[in-house]
């Protein structure tokens, strides 16, 4: 088992050292790595290209009853950009310290989970276990930029339907205290670009109807909502981040020169909307804020998810029953 642990760490670090980082991302080395892992597990692997540079990789462990709906264990290969000067270690060095901590972009989100899936299969196979259902371990691209050419596109293909997926697990959070959290619902993600257009001119003037003045109104509205949601979280220890709406300004665009009032500022907000929020009412609120900011203020949606029904956690869901039984036994 010690050798298996060492192998798991080796594989994890090797995966982390692949800089599959946005925006200029290549998945070639990830595909090579996954193929090598599949070979070491004596498992078949398929690579589906939804576009020439966006591969979806599926490693499959055939079950005793392959006609049954399968289980998908999903992970994404991509990671978000890094500000290297803010790191204490090389973000793609996968350095390990004297306490066993491994430092790298993707260590939690979410290359660790994908390696855990593969290493769990390695242990089960070593014990000559064959599961009842077929397991598909999927590695998808572009999750960090909404997955339009990743999982979203893949689910619409004949190849996905042929996998006959009945249940899927995705990413979660680390459990340093030994308490396992199961996430069975998802907030709706809206990425909004608020365009604030106004009167341009020289920086020495005090013009009316400027883009900056309108942007200030929008910023105030979003940050008032952010403070309200943060207060809910701070005031109630029973709430987690997933119970409230998160709002964050992520990009500000506009301006050409420091003495020129620009004709437009664009503010991008990443909103994760709580399941208790009426999305139609939320959209009405956003539109009202734009009206209050002034003329020529409008919303462009980069992403606008609807609420997805939560997974049933009762006897109607055989996968949940099996999942819970395993944890009860532990």
From TrEMBL:
UniProt: Zn(2+) 1 binding residues: 76, 109, 171
Keywords: Cytoplasm, Hydrolase, Metal-binding, Zinc
Compartments where found: Cytoplasm
Gene Ontology terms describing biological process: amino acid metabolic process
List of residues binding Zn(2+) 2: 109, 144
Co-factor: note: Binds 2 Zn(2+) ions per subunit.
Enzyme class: hydrolase
Domain called Peptidase M20 dimerisation: residue spans: 192-295
Coiled coil regions, renumbered to chain: none
GO MF annotation list: aminoacylase activity; metal ion binding
Main location per the UniProt record: cytoplasm
Catalytic residues (UniProt): 78, 143
EC number of the protein: 3.5.1.14
Record-linked InterPro entries: Aminoacylase-1_M20A, ArgE/DapE_CS, Bact_exopeptidase_dim_dom, N-acyl_aa_amidohydrolase, Peptidase_M20, Peptidase_M20_dimer
SUPFAM superfamilies in the cross-refs: Bacterial exopeptidase dimerisation domain, Zn-dependent exopeptidases
Assigned protein family: Belongs to the peptidase M20A family.
PANTHER family named among the record's database cross-references: AMINOACYLASE-1 (PTHR45892:SF1)
Protein name listed in UniProt: N-acyl-aliphatic-L-amino acid amidohydrolase
Organism: Ignelater luminosus (Cucubano)
Lineage: Eukaryota, Metazoa, Ecdysozoa, Arthropoda, Hexapoda
